[in-house]
Design a protein that fits this description.
The complex is a heterodimer. Chain A is mainly beta. Chain A is about 10% helix and about 40% strand. Chain A contains 1 helix and 4 strands, in the order ββββα. In chain B, the strands form 4 sheets. A 7-stranded mixed beta sheet of chain B has the order 3-7-1-9-12-2-13, sandwiched between helices. In chain B, strands 4-5 form a two-stranded antiparallel sheet. A two-stranded parallel sheet of chain B has the order 6-8. Classes of the chains: A mainly beta, B alpha/beta.
Chain lengths: ~100, ~425
């Protein structure tokens, strides 16, 4: 089961562009959540719309994505998201 | 047949820049020695790279979307659900539970009480010198005191003549001495402050890392393809007086190369200082003959970027921000029980050039998460492992979202050894 070998993390942002509170946005200011899945082969992240009143992420409102392959890019410097069929992969691996 | 004690060591902002994780520069002999008797997870990750959400997540065994804590401003029992914590579970199972230093993030996120009395048998201990951490105690080149990022100090010169982590070690050792004769098992959580900023550490530790030996991050530029939303503009670093003086443009302006080296030097020096505190604590555990009856778990709330991708600090989804050390020592399982008089954890001086790098005892390469700490510690201690959480689980007080890692502790060579207990 590939889900047995996945680690999840997430980070909130107040905006698409870095601003003074991008590091530590208060709950009310969170507009976007970056959800990451890691496998032994890659890290895949989608930054999606987030409603702080309902604590709900909207996975059809994708703001950006990241995809890094461990073997070819262990430092995560070459984002392959736009070169991939990212949305399909994410749907497949969502918990 | 007696219950095992638990010593949980939580470090603040420690990425796996440790000898036992293959770092050739950092001197961490005491943590390496712990790892040499332990199971070390090479690929462990935090659920969110900022203090309060990460700590509430792994201490409750639930992800941030369940604790509903993404910032510093709410208490999960009021805001999300009355979730049990690791120490609470041990307390309810007959353990004396104690908190020293920064275990829960202080403030409203732990109800201004470190979740006491739910989690702890006694009021948590905080070192008195903690209040000076962000004050002007760093001697600058102008001879004046500043609130700097880089803050090597002469400990005799600072207020109270001590530092928070030294006080926490002393307090933890005192508690171990008291618990040695206790009829009840203990769960002692010790939260160290360093290497969290400011890098306020005894200045002699700088000598371990001459600037000429300090390299820059291998990839110090912001990657072309990085979406702006993914970038962390490290605002807390910029607020320190010595960084402000560099007049760096926001958000992408790079830190001058010389200063990058100094940040890395001070981070590594802080790690070695932390290592000495861990060493003193574990040596005391050994001296008190508690090493054969105490599980030791060692981890950090998240990692820390040291210039990779043009970023500093945490606050992102990059591996440098989420990758954490995770080490478990289980007496009689990850290592043989110490013989009478044998010391497993003698104090090792990082300044001793003769000390050899110790390899981890056992390692797992599997991806694991900090939310697994709760079920794994419960299982290792012989308590019933909390059930998996349903979805949603806001109404369930005791359950866990992380995997139980106990299967990683089944070692064929140990199981075939008739002389090992358990």
């Amino acid at each position: 089961n590939p889900r047995e070998l996945i680690a999840y993390s997430q980070y909130p942002r107040p905006s698409d562009i870095p601003q003074w509170n991008s590091d530590k946005p208060s709950l009310k200011d969170i507009k976007i959540m970056g959800y990451s899945i890691r496998t032994i082969d890659y890290r895949y992240t989608v930054w999606v719309g987030f409603n702080p009143d309902e604590f709900l992420a909207n996975f059809s409102d994708i703001h950006a994505g990241e995809l890094y392959f461990v073997d070819s890019d262990p430092l995560q410097d070459h984002n392959m998201y736009n070169d991939s069929q990212g949305g399909d992969l994410f749907q497949l691996l969502m918990p | 047949t007696d219950a095992l004690n638990v010593l949980l060591i939580i470090v603040d902002d420690l990425r796996p820049s440790l000898g036992c994780y293959g770092d050739k520069l950092v001197r961490s002999p005491n943590i390496d020695q712990l790892a040499s008797h332990s199971l070390l997870f090479q690929n462990a990750f935090a659920q969110q790279a900022v203090c309060a959400p990460s700590r509430v997540s792994f201490l409750t065994g639930r992800r941030p979307d369940t604790t509903r804590l993404y910032d510093f401003n709410s208490y999960w029992r009021v805001h999300a659900g009355n979730f049990s914590t690791i120490p609470q579970y041990f307390k309810e199972n007959g353990y004396v539970t104690m908190s020293v230093g920064k275990v829960f993030h202080p403030g409203i996120s732990s109800n201004h009480t470190d979740d006491s009395p739910y989690s702890w048998s006694f009021p948590p201990y905080h070192p008195s010198s903690e209040k000076y951490e962000n004050t002007k105690t760093c001697r600058g080149p102008d001879g004046e005191l500043h609130a700097n990022l880089l803050c090597p100090v002469d400990v005799l010169d600072v207020p109270e003549g001590t530092l928070p982590d030294k006080q926490s070690t002393e307090q933890a050792i005192q508690l171990l001495e008291k618990m040695k004769t206790s009829a009840s098992p203990f769960f002692l959580a010790v939260g160290y402050h360093k290497p969290h900023i400011p890098f306020r550490y005894p200045k002699e530790f700088q000598k371990l890392y001459p600037l000429e030996n300090i390299t820059l991050a291998p990839d110090p530029e912001v990657p072309d393809g990085l979406p702006p939303v993914a970038y962390n503009p490290w605002m807390d670093i910029r607020q320190r007086e010595d960084v402000q003086a560099l007049n760096i443009s926001v958000p992408y302006g790079p830190i001058p190369v010389d200063f990058q080296r100094k940040i890395r030097q001070s981070y590594f020096a802080s790690v070695s200082y932390l290592d000495t505190q861990v060493g003193r604590l574990l040596s005391a555990l050994d001296d008190l003959q508690l090493a054969n009856s105490t599980i030791i778990a060692f981890t950090s709330d998240h990692g820390w970027a040291l210039g990779e991708h043009g970023e500093w600090a945490k606050y992102s989804n990059f591996d440098v921000a989420t990758h954490v050390p995770l080490i478990f020592y289980v007496p009689g399982r990850t290592a043989s029980l110490p013989e009478a008089g044998e010391k497993l954890f003698p104090y090792l001086d990082p300044f001793d050039s003769a000390s050899q790098l110790m390899e981890p005892g056992r390692q797992s390469m599997d991806l694991v998460e900090l939310v697994s700490l709760f079920p794994t510690l419960a299982g290792l201690a012989g308590l019933q492992v909390p059930p998996r959480c349903p979805v949603p689980s806001f109404h369930v007080e005791l359950c866990r979202e992380g995997k139980n890692l106990l299967k990683h502790f089944r070692f064929r060579d140990l199981e075939e050894d008739p002389y090992l207990p358990g």
